[in-house]
Structures are given as structure tokens and as C-alpha cells.
Amino acid sequence: MPLMVYLVGVANPHVAIGSSALAVAANAASGLAQHARARNVRWGAGIAFAAAGVLGALAGSTLGKAVDGHRLLFLFALLMIVVGVLMLRRREQAGVVGGGLTRATAPRLIVLGGATGLLSGFFGIGGGFLIVPGLIAATRMPMINAVGTSLVAVTAFGLTTALNYAASGMIDWSLAAIFILGGIAGGVTGTRLAQRLSRRGALTPVFAALIFAVAGYMLWKSGPVL
Fold it and tell me: Which value, to the nearest 10 degrees, does the dihedral of the CA atoms of residues 87, 214, 118, 21 take?
């Protein structure tokens, strides 16, 4: 979504949100297949998280369409900074191998899934940078498993948001198609890179650094508009 607004130059942030949600859903489905082959996906946890968040994504995207687009971008950047800080605070936790859906984790997955779905829909994003720390908080699964498992929910949330925006005519279909094709190609490389960074213990700080960089740029660009 930031790429569409600041690099491509989509004038209407809501069109960028709808188009990026569709692209993110398709690319997440492709990435999910890659991570599934690498056995990084904890299906029970991912399905529970996604099921709890779909209704939240529908409600959030409906509310988001009524909010000024540039204000959404500014608030989104602030949220990214908060999530980045929380991820760095948890970087010393190695995770529990095989951590996933259990009687103990199910309530946390449902609560965090619902809340993440709401935020994902409101800001018009797949929500991966929210879902990953949510899965870790709920199950203490390792970072690489959280990344793979998050794609189940990213696909579901992105598709829900995209359908809601499409109903209001807020999707640039040709632009979304270009991002989908590029994302599928990049997903193969991204999965391999995630595996290497995870083995070196560098996946979390790299992920957080990317969040901070994008958030800082968004604050710089959207702040003067408010």
C-alpha cells in the first residue's frame, strides 16, 4: 500500500488500499505454498487465527472506507512503529518448536485474531506485520513458523478487505495484477531468504528494521497533509 501511494503515485489512498489488499491476498497465497513445502506452517493455529479475524476484517474495512485516506496512512505508520518496538522486545525469545493450536493457546489465538483482523481491515492491509507478533504472543512459536503461518490469515484478511473495497469500486484491477505477478516471482526468493535469516537469528531484527524504515517514510510524507 505505501508503494502504491508513494512510489507508483496512486492519488486516492482508498484505491491503493483496495488494490494492495487484493495483491497481498494473492501473493500471500503463493507464499503460503512455498512455506508449506518448507514445513513452516502450523495449520491449526493459522486457521483458528484467520477464522477469528475475518469478521473483524470485514467490520474494519467498512469503517476504514469512511475515514480520510491520508489520515489512515498517518495512523498506520504510528501503528507500525509500535509493532516494531514490541517485536524487538521479544527478540530474545527463541520460541517453542512445534508451538501451535492447543487448548491453552486457542483462546489467545481467537482474541488476537479478532483484534488483528479488525486492524487489518481498517488500515486495508494484509496485516502480516501484525499477525506475526500476534501468533508469537499466542503460541510462542518460532519466528520462521510465525512467518509461514501468518500467510493463512494474510490471505483471508486481504481477500475480505479487497472484496469490501471492490464493492465500492475502489480497486485498480490492472495495477493489482502487476503487483500480483511481481509478488509471486519475489515470493520464491523471499521464502529462501527468510529461511537463511532465521537460521542466523536475524529475521526478527531485519523485519523490525524494515517496519521502522517504512513507517518513518510514511510519517514524513503523510504528516504535512494532515
Answer: -130
All 3 cell numbers of residue 67? 475515514
59 contacts: CB under 8 Å, gap ≥ 6? 118, 121
- Cβ-based neighbour number of residue 224 at 10 Å: 7
The one-character DSSP state at 164 is H
Burial zone of 202 (CB within 10 Å; 0-12 exposed, 13-18 middle, 19+ buried): middle
Nearest to 188 by CA among 2, 33, 69: 33
Distance of alpha carbon 7 from the chain centroid: 19
Q: What is the spatial distance between Cα 209 and Cα 88, in angstroms, rounded to a whole number?
A: 9
What is the distance in angstroms between the CA of the first residue and the CA of the last residue of the chain?
18
Ranges in the chain, pLDDT < 70? 90-99, 126, 223-226
Q: Give pLDDT, residue 144.
A: 86
pTM reported for the whole predicted model:
0.79
